[in-house]
Amino acid sequence: MSTPQALLAAGPSFLDPEWLISTFGLIGILAVVFAESGLLIGFFLPGDSLLFTAGLLVADGRYLHQPLWLLCLLVAVAAIAGDQVGYLFGKRVGPSLFRRPDSRLFKQENVERANAFFARYGARSIVLARFVPIVRTFTPIIAGVSRMHYRTFLAFNVLGGVLWGAGVTVLGYFLGQIGFVKSNIEFILIGIVVLSVLPVGIHLLRSRRVAAPRDGGQLAGPERRVGR
C-alpha cells in the first residue's frame, strides 16, 4: 500500500470523502448532502470536502462518470430538499428543541450556536450557513422554530443550495484539471480528509471542556435557556 493510501486508510472511513464516493457513488453523495443539510444527526458529515472531492474525481475521471452539470443539479436539489426537511422539523418541534437533553449525537450548544447565527444574519443566514460546518445543519431547523415566512425561507434556501452545492463542486472540478493537482491528487485528498475531521475534532474537544466542569460541580446557577 502506498504512503497516501495508508494515511487515508488510517482515518475513519465515514469521514473519508474518497471512500464514501468509491463505495456509494452518486447516491452516497446525495444522501450525505441531504442529511447534513437538515437532519440533526448529519452535522458531523463531510459536506464541503465531499463536494470538493466529487469535483476533483469528476475531472480525474475516477469513480464518477456523470457529467458535471448533472452532478451539480442533483447536489443542489439534495441540499435544498435537506433544508426543507430541517425547516419543517423545526416548525413542528418548536421551542421544545431548546429543552431537548444532550445526547451523544445532540448538543444544545449546536442549537444555541445556530440560533445566534440566525439572530445575527436573519434570512441571509440560510445562505451564509451553507458554508459553515455544523451551523449548516441546524440553521434551517432554527428558521422553522422561528416561524420564518415560508416563501422567504424557500427563496434563500434555493439560492444557498445552488451556490454551495454547485459552487463547491465546480471549484473542485476546475482545480482538478490543474496539472499539479492531478499529479498530487492522493496527497490533496489526504488534506481534504484532515479538513473534514478537523471541525468535528474541535467540536468534540470543546464539548468535553464544557462538560468537564459541569460534571465536577464547578458551575452553579440556574439552567440557561435559549429560545424565542
Question: Topology of this protein?
Answer:
Elements (H helix, E strand, L loop, with lengths): L2 H8 L6 H22 L8 H14 L7 H26 L14 H14 L3 H4 L6 H11 L4 H26 L3 H5 L1 H31 L13
Helix pairs in contact: 1-10, 2-3, 2-4, 2-7, 3-8, 3-10, 4-7, 4-8, 5-7
In short:
By secondary structure, the chain is mainly alpha-helical.
Total count of strands: 0
Gap between N and C termini, in Å? 54 Å
Strand content: under 5%
**Which residues sit in consecutive blocks of at least 5 with pLDDT less than 50?**
1-10, 217-228
The global form is globular
Give average pLDDT, whole number.
Answer: 79
- The SSE order reads HHHHHHHHHH
Structural category is mainly alpha
- Rg, alpha carbons: 19 Å
- Helical region count? 10
User: What's the structural domain tally?
Assistant: 1
Major sheet, described briefly? none
What oligomeric state do the depicted chains represent? single chain
Helix content: over 70%
Describe the 3D structure.
The chain has 228 residues and is mostly helical. It has one domain. It has 10 helices and no strands. The protein has helices at residues 3-10, 17-38, 47-60, 68-93, 108-121, 125-128, 135-145, 150-175, 179-183, 185-215. The longest helix has 31 residues, at 185-215. It starts with a helix and ends in a 13-residue tail after the last helix. The model is unreliable at 1-10 and 217-228 (pLDDT under 50).
